[in-house]
Every structure is written in structure tokens, then in C-alpha cells.
Amino acid sequence: MAEKKIQLTKKDRLSVAWRSTFIQGSWNYERMQNGGWCYALIPALKKLYPKKEDRAAALKRHMEFFNTHPYLASPVIGVTLALEEDRANGAPVDDVAIQGVKVGMMGPLAGVGDPVFWYTVRPILGALGASLAISGNIVGPILFFVLWNIIRWAFMWYTQEFGYRAGSKITDDLSGGLLHDVTSLASMMGMFVLAALVERWVSIKFTPVVSQVKLSKGAYIDWDKISMTHSGLQKAFTQYQNGLALSPTKVTTLQNNLDSLIPGLAGLLLTFLCMWLLKKKVSPIVIILGLFVVGIVGHVIGLL
Amino acid sequence: MSAISIILVVIVAFFAGMEGILDEFEFHQPLVACTLIGLVTGQLIPCVILGGQLQMIALGWANIGAAVAPDAALAAVASAIILVLGGQGAKGVGTSVAMAIPLAVAGLFLTMIARTLAVPIVHLMDAAAAEGDTRKIDFWQVVAICMQGLRIAIPAAAMMFIPATTVKNVMEAMPSWLTDGMTIGGGMVVAVGYAMVINMMASREVWPFFAIGFVVATVTDLTLIAIGALGLALAFIYQNLSKKAANGGGNGGNGGNGGNGGDPLDDILNDY
């Protein structure tokens, strides 16, 4: 311990963070993220263990099974960096301790990453971008891409640094409610926005005509009495603004009836049906193909 | 398509394939992948529209545990190529969306193959680790990532050898009842993705948020950003109140009542 301490610089840690972007690159059915994990740590291990046999041992212990949410790997990497640094400087940190921290953190963290990133942030940003893109607006994809990557990179860098500074103490910090708070916030906001998306974007239109009512005179615009001049058009638009109908018969479709209960009701029911089918272990792909068949058949028989 | 366009499309497909496994930059999301293909083939606007529609369908697609989601990367890349080759512009979007679904299933099998092939690669990395050879580990990691890129780049390249006239003829030969029906189906398919996500997140505590969100969305003046802000604010309010209630309840218990805290609002008021 007489020698001077080896410390990881900010440059080393940035290099590890950048490499952790590729953590899932060699995802495999045997040990999942292990290859990417080891790949990410290489700049640090190279610096900490200049002797070849030490380095080989370090590389081997980081080829063990590892799997978590790819972004939530960052705090685990931070903690591991702190532990490896201590060990390289002579502290009694054994393989079991390092492996224990990795395994102990990956499970709970994956449980946070999925609802926060895959079920809340991505659907919200995706829907925001898509709603612009559907009308041909190029801002949609750009907005999605830029915002997503800023959030992702900020999160990965900050949590890795947090893990590095906190070291093995992090497990206490995380279980102290912070994780729970973030997850529950995300699920509340996520459900709120999802409901809005269901209302806005699940589209079913039932076309069957329920009733055709002849309107009384004065309730619709009498086009025969409108001349195609400036003043004539002005009159027609004024009448339209006053709530006069465009044609002498009022057509009510099944859809109009449903919408008068609450707009989007049909889409909501369809979503509930899908949820039920999914719970019955029907594959999402089967449901998707089924809905296309329903769409085509329904259109041919005039229901949709 | 010009040679340059073909090369650029293959590059875009390669990135989409990489991201299909990495899930970091999100090049594989339809919104981004379709837009990039539109950009390099000069048909930007129709591809942006296609990307938007596919994104709506793919919002809830995520690989979690045993649930295997369809593959967004191949679906986005291949259907954008079909749209471009078909040359129908924005009119062909509905059909391309429907084409994307079987492609998403095909992509799933390719993913499974790639993930199995990664096993021997990791064994090579083991061997390199035993020698302490970091360069070799780096090398095999890059090989594994490239393999994932090729997973999409090869099918994309193959598709571009189909003559544009053939795609065009097939697209135009489709009767309107079929294309209209598929467009209607596309509007309903969106529900599946949402249902997947809701099933994962739903709990007794969060259902009221769903109900409020649904009703608020019927106010068509509100944009998605407004709805998001409202949702976040409500979530914060709820969390703060429930924390206060929990603290207040605890104090009440210490105060000697011995009960379970009683009415939480009452306890908050008593604390003041």
C-alpha cells in the first residue's frame, strides 16, 4: 500500500459510459449481457490492473451472467468501478462481493427501467413525434430522436457517476424509497397519457346508418336560394355558423350514437378486449393479424 | 433507385438492425428508421407519415421477460422500402402498414437466430478474457453488433433487387376494398400495443389516472404536451399527498391513539 493510489479519471469513466451504450451488442441466450458488460469495463480494468494475470482474472470475473435494463446497468457499473478501484488499491474486496453487488442490483433495477423507459417515456415521446409525423411534419421524428437521446445519455452518465461516488452504499440509498417513488410516478403519469392515446388514436368507425330524419324547413341551408356570388357564399357560411345543417336529411350513424355517450368509447372497449385476450395468453401477433381480418371483412359487409 | 440511394438504405438498415438489439439511440423505431429511408431515397414526406403510423402501432412493443414483441426494426425498414418502390406516395401508406406486420414476425425469428449465434461469440470472448487480451474482446463485441446490423441490412438489400415495377403492379392490383379494409384494420391494431403496456402497468392505485386521462383527452383543444404536463402534475400531487398522509398517520399513532392513523386528512390538519 506504499505505492500511490490508482484512480479512475473522469476520462476513464466517460469512456466506460460510452462503451456501456453497446452493452446489449452480444446479448445471448446463455449469459445475456455478459459480453457487453465486460466490454464496457475494459478501459477501467486496463488502467487498474497493469499486470497481465490480474487483468485476466478481472476480465474473467466480469464475463459472468448479467442482465438488467440497458440504461439501469449504468448505476451498477458505477458501483462496480468503485469496488474494483478499491480492490486494485489493496482493499479486501473479493470476487464474491463484486458478484453479489452486481446480482443484487440488477433485478430491482430492471424492475424500474421497464416501466419508466419502455412504458412511459418512450410511448409518450413516440406518440408526440408520431402525432406530428402523421400529418407529414418532419419535426416529429427529429423531436423524438433528440429528446430521447438527451434524456437517455443524461440518465446514464448521471447514474453511473452517482453509483461510482456512492459505492456499495448505493443499495441502501436505492431501497430507501427513491426507486419506489420514481416507478410509481412513472406508472401514474403513464396510465394517464395512455388513456389519452387510446382516446385519440384507436380508431373504429361504425358506418351503419341508424336513422335518417327529414329536417324541417329552416333547419338546413336551402342551397337553391343561395346564389354563387360573394354575398351568396357569405350568406351560406353565416347560416352554417348559426348551426344550420348542410343537407335536408339528418343522417345518424351508429358511430354518432356511440360518440354521444363519450367520444372514443369503441376504441376503449377494443383496448379492453385486447387486454383480456393478452391475459388469456393469446399472442399479440395473432391479435394484430385478427384485427386486420376484422377490418377487411367489416369493411366489405359495410359495418366499418 | 440510384446506386447511392441503395447503399444509403442498406446503411440505414444496418443501423436499425444494430439498434434493434442495443435499444439506445432508437434508430430502429419506425419514426426514425422510416424517416431516414425517406431522406436517402428522396421520398421524405410519405415515409415520415408511414413512420408516424407505424410508431403508433409499435408504441407498446418492448421485449420484457417472456413476452416476445414483434420486431420493429425489420417492419419499419422493409415497409418503408415497399412504400418507396411502390411509388404511390402518401396513398400507399395504408398498404405498407399492413405489410409491416408479417415482416415484424419474420424479424422476430431473425432476432432469435442472431441471439443464439451470439453464444459461440461469447465463448470466444471467454477465451480472450482468460488470456487477458482486451483487444480480442473488443473485436468480438464489434462482430456481434455487426451481426445484428446485418440481420436487417441483408433482407433490406435483397428487397431492393425486386424491380420497382413489380412492387408497383402488386400495390396497384390490390382492390380498394382490400386496401381500405387494411387501413381500417391499421387504425384498430394500435389498441394491441396500448393493451400490452396497460397490462404491465395497471394496478388498483393507477386506474383512476386512466379514467381521468381518457376523459380529458376528449377535449380536443388539448395537445399531447398539455396532457403530459397535466398527467405529471397530477402524479406529483398524488405522491406528495400520500406521503404526507403516511407521515401524518404515523404521528397520529405515536400520539397515543394507538389506531392506524385514522383519517389521513385529519392528521394533516392536526399537524398544522
UniProtKB/TrEMBL annotation, chain A:
Record keywords, A-Z: Membrane, Transmembrane, Transmembrane helix
Record-level GO BP terms: phosphoenolpyruvate-dependent sugar phosphotransferase system
Bilayer-spanning residue ranges: 138-158, 178-198, 260-278, 284-303
GO CC annotations, alphabetized: plasma membrane
Source domain of life: Bacteria
Designated name of the protein: PTS family mannose fructose sorbose porter component IID
Organism: Liquorilactobacillus ghanensis DSM 18630
Lineage of the species this protein comes from: Bacteria, Bacillati, Bacillota, Bacilli, Lactobacillales
From TrEMBL, chain B:
Name of protein: Pts systemmannose-specific iic component
Localization per Swiss-Prot or TrEMBL: Cell membrane
Pfam families from the UniProt entry: EII-Sor
Domain of life: Bacteria
Primary localization class, coarse: membrane
Keywords attached to this entry: Cell membrane, Membrane, Phosphotransferase system, Sugar transport, Transmembrane, Transmembrane helix, Transport
Annotated GO CC locations: plasma membrane
GO biological processes: phosphoenolpyruvate-dependent sugar phosphotransferase system
Membrane-crossing residue ranges in chain numbering: 30-52, 64-85, 97-118, 139-162, 182-202, 209-238
Region forming the signal peptide: none
Organism name: Liquorilactobacillus ghanensis DSM 18630
Membrane topology label: Multi-pass membrane protein
